[in-house]
Design goal:
Blueprint: H1 4-14, H2 25-31, H3 36-39, H4 51-67, E1 71-77, H5 93-110, E2 117-123, H6 138-158, E3 164-170, H7 171-174, H8 177-194, H9 201-214, H10 224-243, E4 253-256, E5 265-266, E6 281-286, E7 291-296, H11 298-303, E8 305-311, E9 324-329
Helix pairs in contact: 5-6, 8-10, 9-10
Length: 331
């Protein structure tokens, strides 16, 4: 079958279970846990690590070593799949590629940190706070969570004994719902007042444009009032999340997949992608001389050419989105 050899090579690379520690002892010392940021190289990062962030990350790494605890990366995620993506509402190849990517980083650090590495995906669990998020059906959030758990379970079994662990955590597991809700209500009132302030007009326009674009199309189109409420509540939720320090930076490394938060470690979503994986689709790119995995946005899927739907029955047990994978050419 066409592509079979190339696809086997791509997935062999994706599922590699080893990180070889360099023989050069000087190199080991330089890239060891005394230089955590040196291990988080540019092929993982989406931006440089500035001096302040470097100091914070190294202090956390030193603390984990002294306390004999794993280094923990925590990634707040949307907890849903963009409804414009064909794989929605369940997780798919984009999530698979991200977990594999984070696996590589975890294996690299675990080679020097004998107490291991934890990769935590933190579900925002917004339905638990009755947020009117783009009219998206509540049951779709649950389907996404369950399908992502299945992927994480697969990687945990595959890499059992490699000193790395993947977890899915819900926001309510680390932040009492009643406390969070109280602050969220307060911030919602504040945000509604900000909506009237002209100096925030650009921000308001941007948020409402995004809400209008993402408003779930399975029901009746959203009214302007519904879209405004959606934008306000999303802003209030983010404001509350960061105010309440929902990822404790004294214990965990907070990770983000978009630019804009200086206190978070801004990583790629996989080696060839920058977009948040839950709003994208994982595909295999055929560049002629090589093939590689990539996460494409809705626009990226439209702009580029589908070559074939390649059967992937060996991964079908993960869910309906894993029976085949799209092979595409960049245009």
């Amino acid at each position: 079958m066409k592509y079979s050899t190339e696809i086997e090579r791509v997935f062999k690379d994706i599922m590699t279970a080893e990180y070889t520690v360099p023989d050069d002892h000087k190199g080991v010392n330089h890239r060891g846990m005394q230089d955590l940021c040196g291990l988080i190289t540019g092929n993982f990062r989406a931006e440089k690590i500035d001096a302040e962030k470097r100091q914070i990350l190294q202090l956390l790494a030193d603390t984990c070593t002294k306390k004999k605890e794993p280094v923990t990366f925590t990634m707040p995620i949307g907890g849903y799949k963009n409804w414009h993506i064909s794989s929605a509402p369940e997780a798919g190849w984009a999530e698979f590629f991200n977990v594999s990517f984070m696996k590589d980083l975890a294996l690299k650090i675990a080679a020097y940190h004998k107490y291991g590495v934890e990769i935590v995906y933190q579900d925002s669990d917004i339905v638990n706070y009755n947020i009117k998020f783009s009219n998206y059906p509540a049951e779709y959030f649950e389907l996404y969570r369950l399908s992502l758990e299945k992927i994480l379970d697969f990687f945990n079994k595959k890499f059992n004994g490699k000193n790395i662990v993947f977890k899915l955590e819900r926001l309510k597991d680390v932040m009492p719902g009643d406390i969070f809700s109280d602050v969220l209500q307060k911030n919602t009132k504040i945000v509604k007042e900000l909506w009237k302030d002209k100096k925030y007009s650009d921000k308001v326009l941007d948020l409402e444009t995004k809400s209008r674009k993402n408003y779930y199309g399975g029901y009746l189109p959203g009214t302007e009032e519904a879209i405004r409420i959606s934008a306000q509540e999303v802003w209030a939720f983010h404001k509350t999340f960061f105010e309440m320090n929902c990822v404790d930076r004294t214990k965990r490394i907070p990770v983000i997949f978009r630019k804009g938060l200086p206190i978070y470690l801004y990583l790629r979503s996989n080696y060839n992608s920058l977009i948040q994986f839950w709003i994208g689709e994982g595909v295999i790119i055929d560049k002629g001389d090589k093939m590689y995995p990539m996460i494409l946005s809705v626009n990226g899927l439209k702009k580029n050419r589908l070559e074939c739907e390649y059967p992937m029955e060996r991964f079908a047990f993960l869910g309906k989105n894993f029976r085949y994978i799209n092979i595409m050419s960049l245009v």
